[in-house]
Amino acid sequence: MKHIFKLSLLILNLFMISELSAQTLKSVDNSQNAGKVEWTDRQVTTGSVPFGAPVTREFRFKNISSENLLILQVKSSCHCTVAEWDRNPVAPGQTGVIKISYDGQKEGDFYRIVSVITNFDSMQSVPLALVGKVDKKPEAATGN
């Protein structure tokens, strides 16, 4: 009985650890962008945000290659997350910004990933994650 209890605790701990690590991007970029594009952060935490208020954060990058960098596409799997970026080439040594906005229309934790495709690797995207929590929807005031 004692061994079953210990085994149950071990399995529970492993499950909790795997859940926490599932909400973090891998720090290694295994695309052909590696060694050419340097990301300041690929995962940004917003903290708590008010219900209904869009939240926008910037993802900064630097072109560390000897060629111009083009952000060809930034896509999300959901309409609640949109991206904005400069379509002009980023020269070697220069920096750029991708702005990611989440609409904040759903209460609770959110973990939104957008995929970035560049001219350095048009076959494999680089994920960026926006993480946070939308506060509870305020209750409507009654007109008594």
3D structure, described in words:
This protein has a single domain, classed as Immunoglobulin-like (Sandwich), CATH 2.60.40. Helix content is 15%, strand content 44%. It contains 1 helix and 8 strands. It has one helix spanning 2-22, and strands spanning 37-39, 43-49, 55-63, 71-76, 81-85, 95-102, 108-118, 121-134. Strands 1-3-6-5 form a 4-stranded antiparallel β-sheet, with no helix packed on it. A hairpin with a 2-residue loop joins strand 7 and strand 8 (121-134). The relative contact order is 0.23.
CATH architecture: Sandwich
With strands numbered from the N-terminus, the spatial order across the biggest sheet is 1-3-6-5
- Please report the first level of CATH classification, the CATH class: Mainly Beta
The helix fraction, in percent, is: 10-25%
Whole-number count of domains: 1
Per CATH, the superfamily is: Immunoglobulins
Q: Kindly state the mean pLDDT as a whole number?
A: 84
